[in-house]
Amino acid sequence: MKNKKYYILLLMISLLFSWSFTLAGDNAKKINKLNWSEKNYTVLNNFVNDYGIGGKFYNADQKPYVLLDWDQTCAHFDCEEATMRYQLVNLRFKMSIDHFKGLLKDEINGVTKLNEEYNNIALKDINEDLVTEYTFLYNNYVGLKGKMTLEEIQKTPQYNDFIAKVAFLYDGYCSTSGIGAAYGYPWVLYLFADMTIDEVKDLAKEAIKYELGNKISKQKWNTPEGFETKAGSISYSYKTGLRVLPEMQNLIAAFTNNGIEVFLVTASYKHVVEVFSGVDNFGYNVPSDHVIGMELAVKDGLIQPHYKEGWVQTQEQGKVEAVNMKIKKELGKNYDPIFSAADSDGDFEMSTQFPGMKLTLIWNRVKGGNIGSISKKAVEQANETAPRFILQGRDENYGMAIPASESILIGKTSPQLVK
After folding, report:
1. What is the DSSP string of 379-400?
2. Looking at residue 325, what DSSP letter applies?
3. How far apart are CA 188 and CA 365, in angstroms?
């Protein structure tokens, strides 16, 4: 019965891909209704008509371009974090024990422990646990230097403590004041150390396919009971069930086929997003040279456990800097983007600091902060024919857009508009 349900799910996903490929095909010039709200459907079609080839604002000498965030904007949920979990579960590591140990700092920007939400755990304690456990895994797992199969190693307390604590530490970094996403976002990418870029792409493709087949749900990893460690027991919670968004596939195709150039600007690793967004992969068809994201140092063909020198972190203000460096300077498009698509605070600057930008689409995650402030502006502008911001709803329980500005968050049944 379980196998039957699994194959039915795979068939449904296959049909969804076929449907979304058709909607986002090479000849798509009009935005299809799909599950856009009536307001957004009208605004977006008018926008493409006005700024695309033949439109009243189209300038062939300054080909218009747009900026799209990726995770939670072009796709439902986060492909980078899905790849991290898949890497952990399947122990897809290449780095030496010394390289792994070098990733763990007992003090970061003067901070020595995670915040209260993460049990005030001392960094030195969780680091000691992780080094001990990675050493065990490295010396015993057949995929590294040992002889135990994946199935055998997965039964050990060291494995189960390790995968939960790596994910927990990443979340803790991002949430702890003084450390934050500026440290956590690139840190999780350093787990790719000693791999080639092609190996990371293969890993990402496996992870994305796996996650697309997963049921959308809230999940939890707990450390093993009775296993004594320095940091003690922890629990890591996450959402599973990555999904494509046909609305964004079709929007990308409509932009492209109307002479509007599409760039993805993501806080994820460039080469992970390239797999999901790439030509002939999952229906988005964005060329790899139009993906702007986090990048790591590479030496002798191998990824190094540190950030690429001279390149900005592509989050918050760094997204603006990346656009200025890559698009305006390197590509010679010394004029502003006309549109952005966003979902979080990390996209706020990219969506507000270019004076020439005409429209921002916000996928509604019912957030506060900076993204919440422009979400409220979208609500205020709901009756305007040419608003600066529009808000699009979705149902996180199904991983799909809904024809409204409100969203239904995972585990909830009632729609919410703003926080």
Report:
1. HHTTT-SS-SEEEE-EETTTTE
2. I
3. 23
Task: For 29-55, write each residue's pLDDT tens digit.
Answer: 889 999 999 999 999 999 999 999 999
**Left, alpha or beta for 278 (phi > 0: left; psi -120 to 50: alpha)?**
beta
CA gap 224, 152 in Å, rounded? 16
Whether this prediction's pTM lies above 0.90 is answered by yes
Looking from the CA of 69 toward its CB, the CA atoms found within 13 Å total 29
Choosing among 3.30.420.10, 1.20.1440.320, 3.50.50.60, 3.30.70.240, the CATH entry for 79-240 is 1.20.1440.320
Phi, psi of 389 (to 5 degrees): -130, 140
Residue 150: which pLDDT band, with cuts at 50, 70 and 90?
very high
| CA–CA distance, 10 with 23 (Å, rounded to integer) | 20
Look at the domain 26-76+261-401 and name its fold. Answer: Rossmann fold (3.40.50)
Query: Cα-flanking dihedrals φ and ψ of residue 388, to 5°?
Result: -85, -30
